[in-house]
Amino acid sequence: MQFRRHTDNSRVDPPRVNAFTLLLSYLIPADRRNAFLDWYAYLRWVDDFADEASVDATVQPFLNRQYLLLEGEGPCHHALLTSQERSLVSLIAENRIGGGVVLASLIRDMLDCIEFDARRRGILTSHERLRGYWLKEVRSYLSAIAWFCGIWQDGDPPGLRGAEGAKIVHVLRDLRKDIGGNQINVSCEEVAAFGISLERVIASTGEAEVGRWVAANARVARQMLWQGLEEVRGCSGLRYKLVVVLLITKYQCYVNPMLRDGLIATFGLCPYEFLTQFMRNLIVCFTGPPRSRRREVLDHPVVRPTSRARLALYSGLVVGTARSELADLYRSLGPARKKVGDAGRVRRRFRVACLLGRTAFEVV
Question: Are 162 and 248 in contact (CB under 8 A)?
Fold first, then answer.
């Protein structure tokens, strides 16, 4: 491949390094902080170019050029490289001096995911293939953070389940914008199962069927985020653990309005909500989940009896109502009734169960 100076930088320079990424960078060891920012800025630049390229035919040659640079087969003269490409070459060279190939492999995985997104533009993809690339992307992302924090090891990084949930929330948040840009992040199976019309989604008239899909995926994502917190509890690296908790907190603040408002939700990080959720996650991460965590994760409402229902319950227990139900129980047991060891206990428990079943409750 003949290299020429890459000059089409008008859409993507300077690279986007947002405030949240800068916050995460302060948790990276100081000697690797600049490398972390270079890594993020480079991948953000490549992804922006692939998303914003006006002609799809220009994307693949651009990605091929990045693969060659990653393998060390690119031009040696820095005048032929952009600033982001020079950062990549320096980053990989420094990593290889120490005999490491981990970072190059992780960047290659991210380029594979970007290439996959570019090739499927305007095309529906199977659920297995789509989610497989999402998993590859978040695994590469978390593994790179673990490498920068100095705790990388073979296998899945701690908190991977939470990163999967964060990716789903990210897709749900940008759903309409992505579809408008011909990037379809809904699988063939989901389109058929939920009856989604992509044209109606773009025109903002398909809220009913898409709302059901968003709600279903948002509930799954929230469960994954909580599971990610539990996974990272056993991690020995404090810096990495705090980075994962911050990432999970960010996307928890996004998923809550989705569950409440659906497609009409407005997304933004409220400082008070973010700090409150962050402190709650720290407690879970360092001391274990509270007793109410399971109910909180599954979104079970707190159920309490009304005053009238409570009075009916107590009076029924005292005066011994539900006698007709007890008679039916004895008739159904027949000869086996004599073999019951503690008939009084069975009678009391059955009476309570009958009263609870007949009593009206309200959700508060």
Answer: yes
